[in-house]
Amino acid sequence: MDLVVFDLDGTLLNKQQRISDFTRDTLTMLSRAGIAYTVATGRTFHAAESCIEGVEFNLPHVYKNGVLVWQPETSHYSHKNLLSGEEIDAVLGAFAEQAITPFVFTLESAGKHTVFHSPVQTDGCRALLKELTENRGVTALPLSSLPEGSCITNISSLCDKKAAAAINQELGNHSHLMAYMGESLYNKDFAWIDIHHSAASKGGALEMLKEPLGVERFICFGDSDNDLSMFEIADEAYAPANALTEVKDLATEVIEHHNDDGIARFLRERFSLS
């Protein structure tokens, strides 16, 4: 089968971090036409849950850029790439050098996440804490209470661009770490930075699903550098007009902007949906 794979932020979601009614209707048409699709995102399952609520994503989902693969039929993660103690220490050290609050995401029972953080020091970090706790319903606790041996999936923050770039450069020297950074889609005053194990990628997770799902061709949609790995393994790769230049350069075609239902409009034409 062909498998259509969607990134969320900057791709399938609009600027309100939601799937529009037009896109929702398009996905229903896609399902009725027997075309398989799933999601591959930098978000956690619970951060994505409210965004994709009401849409049937029945096949395995790829979360945290390939760190985790969620099996919706059995409600469990079949794949995990977690950070080691040594890797965590390196990341926390880089954050401390820039006086930026690290948000440490742990994997708990039933697939839930808890975030542990040091004292909040900047407006960006305060904005991220509010987003996580008030909008995404994540439990946030002091970093000092992080249990020994916790399953840590990633460490993130929202900060000024200079600090994010410095952290990104420092962690580039660690072969087992993968750092992504970019301007925040929803708060242009800040940049986001997210670090996870280098063994994880969207493309790697999709390759792992290829045989079990019987996938013959991948058709991928994405806008940022964390989508490049799945573009590299895709048979067709499409970037919305708002995508990074390097993503557009690797795309089969550049389509309309994510906030103009570009992906949905393309899907209706590509698969003759009506």
Number of strands: 14
Determine the number of helices (DSSP H or I, runs of at least 4 residues). 10
The CATH class of the largest domain is: Alpha Beta
How many strands, which pairing sense, and closed or not: the largest β-sheet? 6 strands, mixed
Look at the helices and sheets and give the structural class: alpha/beta
By CATH, the architecture of the largest domain is named 3-Layer(aba) Sandwich
CATH superfamily of the largest domain: HAD superfamily/HAD-like
> What name does CATH use for the topology of the largest domain?
Rossmann fold
| Beta strand % | 25-35%
Shape: globular
Mind sketching the topology for me?
Blueprint: E1 2-6, H1 8-12, H2 21-32, E2 36-39, H3 45-52, E3 61-63, E4 68-71, E5 76-80, H4 85-97, E6 103-107, E7 113-117, H5 123-135, E8 139-142, E9 152-159, H6 161-171, E10 177-183, E11 191-197, H7 202-213, E12 217-221, H8 228-233, E13 236-240, H9 245-250, E14 253-255, H10 262-270
Parallel strand pairs: 1-2, 1-12, 7-8, 12-13, 13-14
Antiparallel strand pairs: 3-4, 4-5, 6-7, 6-9, 9-11, 10-11
Helix pairs in contact: 2-10, 4-6
What can you see in these coordinates?
The structure is a single chain. This protein folds into 2 domains: 2-80 and 200-270, 3-Layer(aba) Sandwich (Rossmann fold); 85-197, Hypothetical Protein, Haloacid Dehalogenase-like Hydrolase, Chain: A, domain 2, CATH 3.30.1240.10. Helices cover 35% and strands 26% of the residues. It is built from 10 helices and 14 strands. It has helices spanning 8-12, 21-32, 45-52, 85-97, 123-135, 161-171, 202-213, 228-233, 245-250, 262-270; strands spanning 2-6, 36-39, 61-63, 68-71, 76-80, 103-107, 113-117, 139-142, 152-159, 177-183, 191-197, 217-221, 236-240, 253-255. Strand 12 (217-221), helix 8 (228-233) and strand 13 (236-240) form a beta-alpha-beta unit. It is globular.
